[in-house]
Design brief:
Elements: H1 3-10, H2 24-28, H3 35-62, H4 64-68, H5 77-80, H6 85-103, H7 109-127, H8 135-155, H9 161-184, H10 196-202, H11 214-241, H12 247-250, H13 252-267, H14 274-280, H15 282-300
Helix pairs in contact: 3-6, 3-7, 3-8, 6-7, 7-8, 8-9, 9-10, 9-11, 11-13, 13-15
Length: about 300
């Protein structure tokens, strides 16, 4: 593996799917039909990919010893030695510094502040917060919310209470599902035996994981799912009662199906890599397309 490819892999491009959240607020506000707004969102997406890549590099440097003992994470470029630690440190520091500075060129002070807070939060998470039970969940969910807020600030659309609540609950659901899958999902250990819980406890690269139980995480997932469904239904019915079409009300069905399907996959132990679920699970993709289509029709017709 060449050094450029190892650097790219260490930046985890599959996880850049999370950065699509920057399009959420402009899309729900009907602003993406404006070419300038669309270009601003694309630029913001790129900046978050750069910043996220830098934080992944620095995170892997911090966890390199633990990752080398983990049956799956030992194959990461930094842990495997494909990407030297000094190179990862320099590249990571460069990326997390360059992204907020480059955002100033977009002329949105709000975006620069949000991106700066995102970098500080992710670095603090890497250094301290990831080892704190419950706090680590809130920190990662907060990073998702900041992505969504950035899209609204760069385009100049208001962030409604409904939007912030639904995004926050969805982010919490995904993070809790990831932790639960890490704790309970089956995987192969180096000798070919064991499950994810025993593997993670034998290779505790995430010490906070040892402070959770599957029952507690499942309960949190249930609370987040229920609250998110209720909030979305209230928003959709409010929109349908106004001058807009009834497409918003119809979108409740695929939204609930999406939440139910995701919870089923997590319960099966498939939530450790949320981006893999989004890329591979066809039923989830189908209901997501239906949801986007109905909401889009309600907004843009």
């Amino acid at each position: 593996m060449g050094l450029p490819l190892a650097l790219l892999r260490a930046c985890r491009p599959r996880q850049w799917l999370k950065n699509l959240l920057v399009f959420a607020a402009p899309a729900t506000a009907g602003a993406l039909t404006d070419p300038r707004s669309l270009l601003l969102c694309v630029a913001t997406f790129v900046l978050f990919c750069v910043a996220a890549g830098g934080t992944y590099l620095l995170n892997d440097v911090r966890d390199v010893d633990g990752d080398r003992r983990h049956p799956r994470k030992r194959h990461r470029p930094v842990a495997s030695g494909a990407l030297p630690v000094p190179v990862a440190v320099v590249a990571g520091a460069l990326f997390v510094t360059a992204a907020p500075l480059a955002s100033l060129a977009l002329g949105s002070p709000g975006l620069s502040v949000v991106l700066g807070v995102y970098v500080v939060l992710t670095l603090t998470y890497t250094r301290y917060l990831k080892d704190m039970v419950v706090v680590d969940l809130v920190a990662v969910a907060g990073c998702h919310v900041l992505r969504a807020m950035a899209g609204g600030y760069v385009v100049g659309v208001p962030l409604t209470s409904w939007f912030v609540i639904v995004v926050s609950l969805a982010a919490l659901l995904v993070v809790v599902g990831k932790r639960e899958a890490e704790l309970r999902g089956p995987t192969e250990e180096p000798d070919g035996s064991g499950d994810q819980e025993s593997a993670d406890r034998a290779h505790p690269t995430r010490s906070a994981l040892l402070g959770y139980t599957t029952g507690y995480l499942a309960q949190m997932r249930t609370i987040a799912s229920g609250a998110m469904i209720v909030t979305y239904c209230l928003w959709a019915l409010e929109q349908a009662a106004g001058p807009q079409s009834p497409f918003h009300a119809a979108s409740i069905v695929p939204f609930i199906m999406f939440v139910l399907r995701y919870n089923l996959l997590v319960d099966r132990g498939a939530g450790e890599e949320p981006e893999e679920i989004a890329l591979r699970d066809r039923p989830l993709q189908f209901v997501l397309v239906a949801l986007v289509l109905l909401v889009g029709l309600g907004i843009y017709l």
